[in-house]
Amino acid sequence: RNDNPFFRTVPGLEGNEIVLRFQHAQVDRMLSIALGFGNVLYCMDNETNGRPEWGGYWSRYIRGKARERGVEVQTTEMWDPWDLADPMHAHTFDHPDLYTFVDVSQNNHQKGQTHWDNLQRQRERIARQPRPMNSVKIYGADTGPYGTDRDGAERFWRNLIGGMASARFHRPPSGLGLSPQAQAHVRSARMLADRFAFTRAAPDAASRGLLDREPNEAYLTSGEGRHVIYFPDGGSVRLELRDQPGRFALRWLDIARSRWSEGEEVKGGGAIRLTAPGEGHRVALVEPLE
Q1: CA-angle at 146, arms to 144 and 148, nearest 5°
Q2: What secondary structure letter does DSSP report for 262?
Q3: How far, in Å, CA of 253 to CA of 260, rounded?
Q4: 18 phi, psi to nearest 5 deg
């Protein structure tokens, strides 16, 4: 809802220099503080339907001011459409020269397999010039209008397994925030990250490495010979290890309880059956035995 002259002041739109002078003053004041810190990310708007010239102008302006200070900054734009294929999102996805990372939070209005597929299509879209894809607003809570507690938790894990650079529950009532349930999921994610290097892994976008799989039944990411399979609500699939002979350790993570199972040995060289030991959110970790 930014059909307002405030959002058309920049050159290329209305070029309102009277108002733009005050906007420069505001941004300069913000940067006088923020550029002293290396951990600040700059998002031009929140859920905008505005003109791309507006965000583009401010991204260039902020990056220019940073260069004057000898600082490197990261910028993005957050568009409102829930469908990442909407042409608005192209102004970020297709312009790595302008935006150094991508925010895909609005995809967290999607559910199930569609949520995953949309992420993976856009991840492939930027593969030639890869940039971080951030998901800083994961919607979904029984208290809000954008899905249930389960939807929010599933979205968190599909983002993590799917190669997103960040995953964060949105505030209540629209998200799980830092509720006890959210804390359990974050705790379990960190327990998994202690054993599995997500930054050196790649998601199986089309789930070709999982056999006998139903939509939204399980999701796979792999790296350095290790495999992580997320089950949103129990299930049973086969993991293809045809090209990986040898012995593997299989451990299950009960996400809700943040608890690992005892490891068991499985044999590679073919497809192995993975059956979740119960309903609810589960992760299987398959790693080679030395």
Answers
A1: 70
A2: P
A3: 5
A4: -65, -50
Pairing of strands 226-231, 202-203: unpaired
**Residue 77 CA: distances (Å) to CA of 8, 16, 58, 256, 267:** 16, 22, 10, 34, 47
pLDDT tens for the chain, 290 residues long, are: 678 999 999 999 999 999 999 999 999 999 999 999 989 999 999 999 999 999 999 999 999 999 999 999 999 999 999 999 999 999 999 999 999 999 999 999 999 999 999 999 999 999 999 999 999 999 999 999 999 999 999 999 999 999 999 999 999 999 999 999 999 999 999 999 999 999 999 999 999 999 999 999 999 999 999 999 999 999 999 999 999 999 999 999 999 999 999 999 999 999 999 999 999 999 999 999 97
Say which amino acid occupies 111: K
3-state helix, strand, coil in the chain (%, to 5): 35, 25, 45
Count how many residues are written for the chain: 290
What's the whole-model pTM score? 0.95
**Residue of 65, 123, 136, 75 whose CA lies nearest to 100:** 75
Give the Cβ contact number of residue 213 at 10 Å: 19
Where is 152: in which H helix or E strand?
helix 149-161
Tell me the β-bridge partners of 169. Answer: 138
DSSP codes, 178-247? T-HHHHHHHHHHHHHHTTS-GGG-EE-TT-TTEESPPTTS-EEEEETTEEEEEEBTB-EEEEE-TT--SE
Report how far residue 137's alpha carbon sits from residue 120's, in angstroms, rounded to the nearest whole number: 18
